[in-house]
Every structure is written in structure tokens, then in C-alpha cells.
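Example record

Each entry pairs one chain with its bound ligand, flavin-adenine dinucleotide.
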Amino acid sequence: MSPKPLVTVCGCGIIGLTSAIRLSQAGYQVTVIARDLPGDPLHASYASTAAGAHHLSFADDGDTRQQAWDKRTFDVMMEEEQTEGEASAILKIRQVEYYASEGQTHIKFFESLPDFRMHEKSELPPFAVHAVSFTSLTMDTGPYLAKLVRLLHALGGTIQRADLSSLANALAKCPDTSILVNCTALGSASLTDVMDSAMHPLRGQVVVLNAPWCRSEGRTLQVGELAADGGEGGERTYIIPRKSGQVVIGGTREANDWNAEPRVETTEDIKRRALMLYPELVPEGARVQGKQPTPSDLDTIVEKVVVGFRPARHGGTRLARGENLVVGGRSVPVVHNYGHSGAGWQSCWGCAEDVVKLVSGL
Ligand SMILES: Cc1cc2nc3c(=O)[nH]c(=O)nc-3n(C[C@H](O)[C@H](O)[C@H](O)COP(=O)(O)OP(=O)(O)OC[C@H]3O[C@@H](n4cnc5c(N)ncnc54)[C@H](O)[C@@H]3O)c2cc1C
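C-alpha cells for the complex follow.
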């Protein structure tokens, strides 16, 4: 039997790596080509390394495509957590979602998760009008991406670094390519043969704490509505404990803001909001009976402040076949998988499996 064709995947974030792995598992030869690779110093434009990252869907109640991606990814990651233990880089937690605005309620997706429960009015803290809880998952981004790189190599896939000006440029570097998969996220705004003007950054700033005593429960406070078309709208304060003992607190959401530097006043605001939601973050030695915690109580446990640009797209994620690339008399099919905004981690495996379906149908 002749070997399956070579697929070149452009982009090595969570979306490119999971796509490459599923394609390798389906029998394709796979090469990944990207400017930023796991293990590089943090960079705002490499969203996968800046993310929280928890599995917390924003899928609109009518959005069956997003719901399916998010649910499939949850099931795959839950299986990883159960079978790989420490090495999974995934933490299983109890997640509590609080809603502050009158009339607000949870998305239906949460009802499909294990241990879902709607909280009684009598259980609500003063800042919430509604709350639900369920079992969720969080990822240690660096170790999880490193694990995917090892898996891809074990499957025979290769990775090379290149800053591309176009998808055609990737074909020039990998001339045996039969199919090209574009997972370049915000890069799709400037690659000269994609130039997707719907792509834009949604800046996010988070603070990474070292607080291993807070490993069992994640919490989110939603103020205002999620976006009407499914998405991370309103003001969200979140506490994301990780297996490593880090706890990520956030967040912010600034459209078309390319400032890659943390803003000091934002860091203080994040700490203030996080303490209101999760006072247990204060290290034991700094707790004073009867005293309200203040942002400076967290100063000794701040590891770093991180800024990232979510790869947002007007009209939603583009996971579809594109125009063939015609280069030097050859016509190469293209499949796009980019524009996951704030949901790339929680939808990655579902999206990767849809990429395999599109590639297999070519
Ligand atoms: C603060 C913050 C918190 C987040 N929290 C969550 C969360 O809790 N849950 C969740 O699901 N998601 C979360 N996200 C969103 C998530 O991080 C993204 O959706 C996801 O990382 C997108 O993955 P990606 O692989 O498409 O993009 P990226 O990780 O940005 O990777 C893009 C890849 O394409 C390459 N590339 C781009 N342009 C070029 C070029 N010209 N030449 C060569 N290579 C190129 C890059 O080098 C990189 O390898 C968060 C994001 C941020 C910023």
C-alpha cells in the first residue's frame, strides 16, 4: 500500500499540534512549520502559551458546532487525566460559575458535564444572583504542549521553525506537500495569500500565582452578558488552579489592543477581583482574622504577569476547506483551522478531528 500524502500544518499552537497529531494517527505524514514553538519564551502573539487555560465553554445554546467541539475535547482530556495521571498536565476540579447580573443564567452546555448542580438561593454569596457547579478540567499549558510535541514525534511527525510570509512560502519550504492545513491564528490576518480581515486580537492579561493550597476548586464570576453569538462577553473574573500548583487569575478582554506589556493598574484590579471571589488565595502567613484581604497580600506569591492576544474572528472560527493554492503549476488543497478566540484549548481535539474529516474527503 502506498504511504498517505504529506500534510504540512502551518502553526504550532494547541490548534496546529492537535491537528497534526490526529492527522498522523490517521496515517498521514505530517510536518509542522511555525515561527513560535513550545518552549519559546512567552510572547503575546503565541496565544496557546499565554492562556489560562481551563475547559469552560462559551458555546451558545443554539451553536451545535461549538458544543460538539467543546464536548469532544472535554471527553478526550478527561480520558487523558484518568489514564496518564501526573503526566497528563491536566487537573480535574470542581468548577463553580457565579453570575452577578439579574436575569442571567448558565449556558445549557454545562448541564452535560459531570456533577452538574444548580445552587440554591440560600447558598449564594452576596455578589451572585445565580450559580452552578460541575466537574471541569484545567491545563498546564507549557507541559501539555511539550507532551503533544513528544507524541507527534513518536508518531513520526516533524517540526520546523520558519517565519512565513504566505502559505505558498510553506510549500516552497516543504515541496513534497500534498495538502496544507492552516493553523496560524492571528497570522492569518497578514499571510499574503490569506489576509483574513475578520481576524483581530482580543487582548487578555492574567496573573500567575504559586498557590498549591488552592488546587481543588475553580471559580468564575460573570458580570454582564456573554456575547450574543457565543463568546467571552461581559466582565469575567476567573480563578484557574493547575496541577503544578500555579493558579491563574484573570482576566481582561480588550478588542484590537496590541499592547503586549502588562498594565500595572490592571494587575491590581485582577488581584482585587480575584480576592473577592477567592479569599483563600492569601497565603496562610498573611491571613489576619477579621481583616479584609488586599491585593498586596498576594505579592509574595506572584510568579509572573502574562499578556496574550486571543485570535478572534468576526463570524467565528474558520474550520473549512479554502481555495486551492496554485503554485508553479501545482494545485494544493488547503484546509483552514483558525480564529478560535478564547476557546482554542477547550475545543482543540474536536476541531482536529473535523480537520481529519475534511482532509480525508479531498
Ligand atoms: C489570557 C488568555 C486566556 C485564555 N484562556 C483560555 C481558556 O481558559 N480556555 C481556552 O480554551 N482558551 C483560552 N484562551 C484562548 C486560547 O489560548 C486560544 O484560542 C488558542 O491558544 C489558539 O491556539 P492557536 O494554535 O490557534 O494559536 P497560537 O497559539 O497563537 O498559535 C499560532 C501558531 O501559528 C504560528 N504562526 C502565526 N503566524 C505565522 C507566520 N507568519 N509564520 C509562521 N508561523 C506563524 C505561530 O508561530 C504559532 O505557532 C486564552 C487566551 C488568552 C490570551
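The chain has a mean pLDDT of 95.
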